[in-house]
Amino acid sequence: MDKKEMNEHILVCLSPSPSNTKIIEAASKMVEAFNANFTALYVKTTKEPSKEDRQRLNDNVKFAQDRGATIESVFGDDVAYQIIEYSRLSHVTKIVVGKSRVKGLSNIKPTLVDKLIAQAGNVDVYIIPDTEDTRPAPKEKEPIDLNALKKDLLKSFVILSITTLISYLFFEIGFADSSIMMVYILGVMIIAMITQGKAYSLITSALIVVIFNFLFTEPRFTLKAYASEYPVTFLVMFFAALITGTLAGKLKDFASESTRNSYRTKILFDTNQLLQNSTSSEEIVTIMAKQIQKLLSKSVIVYIKENGKIDRPYVFMYNKEDPSKYLNDHEFKVAQWVCEHNKQAGAFTVRFTDSSCLHLSIRVNQQGYGVVSIPIDEPIEPFENSILLSILGESALAMENYRNIKDKEESIILAENERTRANMLRSISHDLRTPLTSILGNASNLLSNAHLFDEKTKSQIYLDIYDESWWLINLVENLLSVTKIEDGDMHLNFSYELINEIVEEALKHVDRHKIEHKISIHSEDDLMLVKVDSRLMVQVFVNLIDNAIKYTPKGSHIDVFILKKEEEVLIRVQDDGPGISDEDKEHIFERYYQKANTLADSRRSLGLGLALCRSIINAHGHEIVVKDNVPHGTIFEFTLSSKEVVLDA
């Protein structure tokens, strides 16, 4: 395939003609032959199509979409100019258009094909001849809206009366006839702007000639005119008023269509901006549905695709409409078909025509992310349909980006978990090996050389084995607790216990180096009950006091304060050691985090103790915090729920 073929862009013109499908089919074959981009363009004019024409146009749009065409729409009464301008701006290389062989007024004024050929320039125009009569069928007379007719007649009468009064005032003042004519022409322009239909401009143009002749020409108050130039004046006045009114009406139509197009384009722009800031799949669905409602003023039902199938719907009803008639098994079946085939179906399509909803796929290329169902009772206009498809495309792209980000985050978390697990295994291996090596060495010495050691040496060896064994027990206990927390298997057995007894029990299990520190308990009341899991709370105090022993020098003071605070008990474990840096404070409760300080016993720590304390305190419904102890040292502080002790008389 050469470079030229790859850059071809073929445009086919859409119309309500019954033979338009033949033109589209010919264009699609050219697209396959040239491997080209394919666009189907509809030029909307100020002339309102009939209901039958709208239905045929919608069928032709669907036919073009099925052939892979991108549907575009522009607005303007000069159809040939709009097609050529779009082709120039979109780099179209070939235009495919049909031409009927039925004789008509083509010998009097140039046809659309003639205009395209004359203005095409470097764009090739391919004409598909048609032997069928493509003239539209006569329009069925639509019922007249009497209320609208009365309102427009009243508006015309009021404006005409006002312009006549102003003109009569100008005549009495002595203004020239030309000034009076301009007042009437202005009135015709205003009437054209505020009424519907061209008939009012035509009728008003004729009336102002009659009124001008009756009121302001000699002889006055008759329909005669003495001056010979008056017939020409009347004729010029009529056509000037008619042309001015017609142009004003067209200007109103163009302004109205431009406003609608601007609103639709703003919806698409806002959709893009909102989707860029979306942070969840549900938010994307909500934004998409709300924007579609703004565009179509219809209810919207969204199904998200999960594991190849759609699940529960997200329902966004318009004007409190009852959703039950759109949430039945048949509509769900159609939505499931759309999800599987990535094609539209339902109302006003060629598939499942008995459906009450139009079902559209939310997709990027061939990757579908869900289905949008829109209850409709008439075909969606081509331009609105184009905006709708763009909203769905933007939403699908946002869903794809969100899922990619989510998958990436999950991969990062998984990699981080693997890295943490590997670091933990290395730490556990090192920390288990050190005390086990000491225990093994001391036990070997006792077995081989016990008779050579005096009693003091043996006692020291026994003490070392005891210390290392107790340290291993605490390590294993913490590991088991952390595992339970990670697996969600931690079950608390709450009961009311005396807090002083819990602290005293914890002191029996702390590191034997506690004798090298001054540990004190300060309690406001010896009979304070707290609602806790006593076994886990003992572990909290053991970890906090052990942590203070490890990170403070010999002779340091470790104080446990138990204070009454309304319906709670405030616990404060503090020391007067070197303290904790601000950097460490931010991470000290993180699992496997190890302080940079040198430990008092030179043994590494897994960084589980404080993390476990926080998890246990949180499970009790409270928080633990770390503070500085002035002038130096550290304070760990938390609260527990309390209960008054009632003593029997």
From TrEMBL:
Xref: InterPro entries: GAF-like_dom_sf, HATPase_C_sf, HATPase_dom, His_kinase_dom, HisK_dim/P_dom, HisK_dim/P_sf, Histidine_kinase_KdpD, KdpD_sf
Name under which the protein is recorded: histidine kinase
High-level lineage: Bacteria, Bacillati, Bacillota, Erysipelotrichia, Erysipelotrichales
Keyword terms: ATP-binding, Kinase, Membrane, Nucleotide-binding, Phosphoprotein, Transferase, Transmembrane, Transmembrane helix, Two-component regulatory system
Transmembrane segments: 153-171, 199-216, 228-248
SMART domains assigned to the protein according to its UniProt record, in alphabetical order: HATPase_c (SM00387), HisKA (SM00388)
Gene3D superfamilies: 1.10.287.130, 3.30.450.40, Backbone structure of the membrane domain of e. Coli histidine kinase receptor kdpd, Histidine kinase-like ATPase, C-terminal domain, HUPs
Keyword Membrane found: yes
GO cellular component: plasma membrane
Keyword 4Fe-4S attributed: no
